[in-house]
Each structure stands twice: as structure tokens, then as C-alpha cells.
Write a structure and sequence with these properties.
By secondary structure, the protein is an alpha+beta fold. Among the domains are: 15-71 and 288-423, 3-Layer(aba) Sandwich (Beta-lactamase), CATH 3.40.710; 157-228, no CATH class. It is built from 11 helices and 16 strands. The protein has helices at 2-13, 18-27, 65-75, 111-118, 231-242, 266-274, 279-291, 299-308, 332-341, 344-350, 406-423; strands spanning 35-42, 47-52, 79-88, 91-95, 122-126, 161-167, 172-176, 183-186, 195-198, 204-208, 220-226, 246-249, 259-265, 368-375, 378-386, 392-400. A hairpin with a 2-residue loop joins strand 14 (368-375) and strand 15 (378-386).
Length: 424
């Protein structure tokens, strides 16, 4: 009777045993000439089902954000601080925590602006020291031009970007924010699509209208472009939004006692980082982590703190919060260790979900909750899959140095996940 009960279960699992998994990792489309790291872990049985190159360093891209998320969980409070300040007589001195949501176009938080607007005191801003450059080490030199390349900064505002609404039919545009330091000109030529280009080092933008064709139904485009951040620009923008005059002070140090202004729940920021894979949010989370123990905001210090608090024993090659850096190198083993440390109920709420949300909304099945990572010729997927039998398995898939189209890699990942879902 015992063998009769076990027989069907064993036969189901054997539909996709280790040897077939390893065969697919070599033979599926796009995998033939690529370096494919893989690990599949059964949480119920605490065992590895199959693995390939799990101990080899690979380029993680945005799966780096899993480590950033873990750092936030370990070091940041459940409610984030939007800023810190002291009251001295008839003055308020305020400074940043690294909080990235002030007047952000997608998640507009007016906490700081309302606080400053309601004050009857003279306002002074101290620009807290920051060790980082505007871009992380190993970022592409031309990242400044893309919506994903907003600069890291002491006190982000408007997502360190300008939103440009372009009406191609009327040849008109509007911006948010509007500021004389953000200068826009209109090109005499048109393009096959709307373009807003910025000078690399100056806040000078050029708009090229789209040449409309007969039958075009969409004539208005909204584009997001990063601006060059500076303390004077920040002070102008926050003063403009609050209706207050704000002066900057230089010779100041963070006191031992101060007040904090509560921002959003930390889980909200983590969700907004993980699902659309927001790079600025990831970078600023590490800034906030470093700011808990030091005057100076520093990605390097945050990473050292984060590594010291994990159970990962191997040396991580970890250089930024977002994964834009090509210097990052993680092993599938290390990514799986991070996923094991995260409560799956949190992952269900915060991670992208197949056919439902985030970067995998158009891919995989609803039973997949996973973080993607993509740089040219490198694509990763790491997370959890709920199988037909009710199990929750953890998986890491990393395709490095492939030459096939990325859609081919995603489709092959999907083939394996469907087999895993049915078999285990």
C-alpha cells in the first residue's frame, strides 16, 4: 500500500528530473552559446533540486535590487524618514536622509513641502555630505540620457527628472517642474518619433516633434528625462513648491539629537523599487542605509554594512544599489541565499508577478513572483514559483553573454518554469 501511494507522486516529479533540466539548460533556444547559471531549491525539503554553475560569478543586472531590498529590511525603519531637522529659536535647519519620493512624478509625496509651507520660521538647508558621484561605478557613460538614468543625489526632488508633455499636432509642450534653469528649445527638424535630448553636462534640452502621418491617433507623448542635479537647483525647486525662501548653510554638522519627519511606509518604497525596477529608488535606499550610522551618505558604506549583516559567507562583488553597474558580480548561490531569507508572503506582495504586475507583467504564469535583471547580452530572473501540487520553489536563472534576442531567452526561461510548475 505504501508503494501504491508514493508511486504517482514520484512519477509526477520524474516528468522533469535533474537530468532533463540540465539538458534543457544546454539545448533550449538562446542557451546554446550562452553561459547559463541555474539553481532550483525545494523549500519544504530543504534541498537543491538541480543546479548549474551556481558557484560561478555572473552579471546580475537588476537582480542586484534583491540585495538592496534586504539591506533596507535590515537597517531602515518601517516608516521612512522624509527628512531630519532641528528647531533653533526662530529658525529651522533641515537636511536629507536620502529619501527619494519628494514630489516624485509617479508617487508624489508632498510631506516635506507641506511641512516647510506650514512653518512660520526662517528655513535653512544643510546639504549633507555625500561620497558618491552622480553615477555609480561601472554605469554606461550615456546613461544620463535615459529615463532610467536619474542621478543619485543628497535630496532628490521630482525624481531628479523633468516630465515633458509634447503635443505633436499643435507643436506645443509643457514641463513639470518648470524652472528657468531647465532650458528647452524646439528643433527645426522633426523625427519619426518624439524626442527630448539633453546636453550631458547642462540642463539644456532640445525637443524634436514627431512627424505625424495620416491616421495617427496618438498625438501627445509624455517623456521623462533626468536633469543635472545641484544644491542651488534643489533649493529653488523646494522653495518654489513650498512658497518659502530657503537659505543654504555650509558650516554645520548633524547634531546628536534632532527631529524626523515621517514619510511613507518602507514596504511601499520597496514595492515601487522592485516591481518596475526603479533605479533611483534602489540607489537612494542604500543612501538611507548609510545615513543611519554616519553623517555622510555613501553607497560603499551601505554595502559594507549590508554585507556584514547577512549570512552570506562568500565575497560579493557589489558596487551599486540598482544593478546598472557592470562591475557587480554575484553567484546564483548568493542570490538564492537572499531569496531564502525573504518571507514568501512579502514576496507575493512586493515582487513582480507573472501576467499581473511589474517587469514580468507580460511574461510567465501568475504563479511566478520574481525579479528580473537586464543589461545588454545579460538577463536574469530570480524568485519563487508556486507549483501545481502546492509547493513553493525558489529559482535563480542567469543567462550571460547570449547573442539571441532577449525574447528568446525569456521564452526559454518560461518553458523551464512551466515544466517545473507541472512537475513538482
Amino acid at each position: 500500500m505504501v508503494f501504491f501511494l508514493l508511486g504517482p507522486t514520484l512519477s509526477i516529479a520524474q516528468r522533469y528530473p535533474k537530468r532533463k533540466i540540465l539538458k534543457d539548460l544546454k539545448a533550449l533556444p538562446g542557451f546554446e552559446n550562452a553561459f547559463i547559471g541555474f539553481k532550483l531549491y525545494d523549500t519544504d525539503k530543504d534541498r537543491v533540486v538541480a543546479e548549474q554553475y551556481a558557484d560561478q560569478y555572473m552579471t546580475p543586472a537588476s537582480t542586484t535590487k534583491l540585495f538592496t531590498y534586504q539591506a533596507g529590511l535590515n537597517y531602515l525603519p518601517r516608516t521612512l524618514s522624509a527628512m531630519e531637522y532641528v528647531i533653533k529659536g526662530d529658525s529651522i535647519i533641515f537636511w536629507s536622509t536620502g529619501y527619494p519620493l519628494t514630489l516624485h512624478p509617479d508617487h508624489r509625496d508632498s510631506t516635506v513641502v507641506k511641512f516647510l509651507a506650514a512653518s512660520d520660521k526662517q528655513l535653512y538647508y544643510w546639504s549633507r555630505p555625500m561620497e558618491d558621484e552622480r553615477f555609480g561605478p561601472g554605469w554606461g557613460w550615456d546613461d544620463y540620457a535615459g529615463y532610467y538614468g536619474a542621478e543619485k543625489s543628497v535630496f532628490p526632488i521630482y525624481g531628479n527628472s523633468v516630465q515633458v508633455i509634447v503635443d505633436n499636432q499643435k507643436k506645443e509642450f509643457s514641463t513639470s517642474p518648470t524652472h528657468p534653469g531647465l532650458r528647452f528649445t524646439e528643433s527645426d527638424s522633426t523625427n519619426t518619433r518624439t524626442r527630448v535630448n539633453r546636453d550631458e553636462f547642462w540642463n539644456e534640452f532640445e525637443i524634436k516633434y514627431k512627424e505625424l502621418e495620416e491616421g495617427d491617433s496618438v498625438t501627445v507623448d509624455t517623456l521623462i528625462r533626468p536633469f543635472r542635479y545641484s544644491d542651488p537647483l534643489f533649493i529653488d525647486l523646494i522653495g518654489q513648491a513650498s512658497g518659502k525662501q530657503i537659505k543654504q548653510i555650509e558650516d554645520y554638522h548633524r547634531p546628536k539629537t534632532f527631529e524626523t519627519l515621517a514619510g511613507v511606509a518602507a514596504d511601499s518604497l520597496y514595492k515601487w523599487m522592485l516591481q518596475p525596477s526603479d533605479n533611483l529608488f534602489a540607489e537612494q535606499i542604500l543612501m538611507m542605509v548609510s545615513g543611519k550610522s554616519s553623517d555622510t551618505l555613501s553607497t560603499e558604506k551601505a554595502i559594507k554594512l549590508a554585507q556584514a549583516s547577512t549570512n552570506i559567507k562568500t565575497e560579493l562583488v557589489w558596487r551599486d544599489g540598482s544593478g546598472l553597474s557592470r562591475y557587480n558580480m554575484f553567484r546564483p548561490n548568493e542570490i538564492l541565499d537572499v531569496l531564502k531569507s525573504i518571507d514568501f508572503s512579502l514576496a507575493e506582495e512586493l515582487f513582480p508577478q507573472g501576467q499581473t504586475s511589474g517587469t514580468i507583467e507580460e511574461w510567465y504564469t501568475p504563479n511566478v513572483y520574481a525579479k528580473t535583471g537586464t543589461l545588454s547580452n545579460n538577463h536574469s530572473l530570480a524568485g519563487y514559483i508556486k507549483t501545481d501540487s502546492g509547493k513553493t520553489l525558489i529559482f535563480v536563472m542567469m543567462a550571460n553573454h547570449y547573442t539571441a534576442p532577449i525574447t528568446t531567452i525569456r521564452e526559454s526561461f518560461g518553458v523551464m518554469l512551466k515544466k517545473i510548475q507541472k512537475a513538482y
